[in-house]
Amino acid sequence: MKSISEAYKDHPINLHNIIPIDFKKVHELPDSHTWPSLGQDSISDTSHDQVIPIIDIEDPNIVKLIGHACETWGAFQITNHGISISFLDEVESQSRNLFTQPSQQKLKALRTPDSVGGYGRPRMQPFFPKFLWQEGFTVVDQSATVDQTSKIWPNGDHTPFCHVMEEHQKKSKDLANRLLGLMLDSLEITKDDLRITLLGSSSSPEDLKSEAPHTALQLNSYPACPDPNKAMGLASHTDTSLFTILYQSSRSRGLQIKVDGFGWVTVPPVPGAFVVNIGDLLDILTNGRFPSAVHRAIVNQSHHRISIGYFYGPPCNSKIAPIPKLVDSNHPIRYRDMTWREYIGIKAKHFEKSLSFAAVNPEIRTNAQS
Ligand SMILES: O=C(O)CCC(=O)C(=O)O
Ligand SMILES: [Fe+2]
Known about the structure:
Elements: H1 4-9, E1 54-56, H2 62-72, E2 75-79, H3 85-99, H4 103-106, E3 118-120, E4 135-139, H5 142-152, H6 159-186, H7 191-199, H8 205-210, E5 213-222, E6 234-237, E7 243-248, E8 255-259, E9 263-266, E10 274-278, H9 280-285, E11 295-297, E12 305-315, E13 319-320, E14 338-339, H10 340-350, H11 354-358
Parallel strand pairs: 1-2
Antiparallel strand pairs: 2-10, 3-4, 4-5, 5-12, 6-11, 7-10, 7-12, 8-9, 8-11, 13-14
The structure holds 2-oxoglutaric acid and fe (ii) ion (FE2).
């Protein structure tokens, strides 16, 4: 069975699209990074700030609150989750530390065209004619990360970074498990129902535990930008995860979610909170009940913004299909069965139209693609 990292190898990206510019040397927005058609669309409307709910994980109504947020917005912010602000500050500061290294050092950890982990531009880059104002570092495999970061920081200085990222992945995994349970409860779906869809009826509950979920930590860096209204951090997209747990630095706004009837809504940073957004895989598994959130990151002139996304996925050999209990005459089946690997292939080819390609009837579009 191929791993997901191996599945990505089937869809290599052009090297030109991987190497970020040296942002420190750029004082005017280059034409290569100027998005002419953004106009007013890039300006956030602060009056809509409170649309995406902020939920305390210890709230007695947590199941209802999470279910409502997922169905309505495909996203929410979660507080009181047990991961301390001081720890998150450390994760942010180690990420900042990596991105403030000289360009020639960071390039030593450049991901190869067919790999997921390491330093580089976002995987979505090839879908756009203009470059994004972003550089990223993806942590998938701990030993590869140790290897790559030891090239960025010679003399063993990579250890604190690697240690904190490993801890963050562990803590995020526990939180993701807890959130998944709450999301399923809100739909009256058990973990067994989910397991049978993902791994088949001959699998056992131990299989879901022993088959490690596929996860990745995505560190995003958006340096202060000379002309933010003409630049784009990460363009409109949905995540290829069950859901994503995102930490954003509290100093500057940047994340926006597209909401029907509102347009682009800014998700303001709440100190210590995570943004949770539904990804394509949970959209498919819930038969569209939890829509994958369309989102993007805009940039600003004064701050170097950092965000850290934990992409939570099912085991690598999973089948992705609507859970039968969520399909009935009122909720006709929206998506066809496929393996996760097949979906990665669809995404690599069709990007934002991927959910339509997974739909039984492509005319029935999810609101993830409006
Ligand atoms: O930086 C952000 O707020 C969004 C990051 C994001 O969407 C991603 O990493 O997929
Ligand atoms: Fe995203």
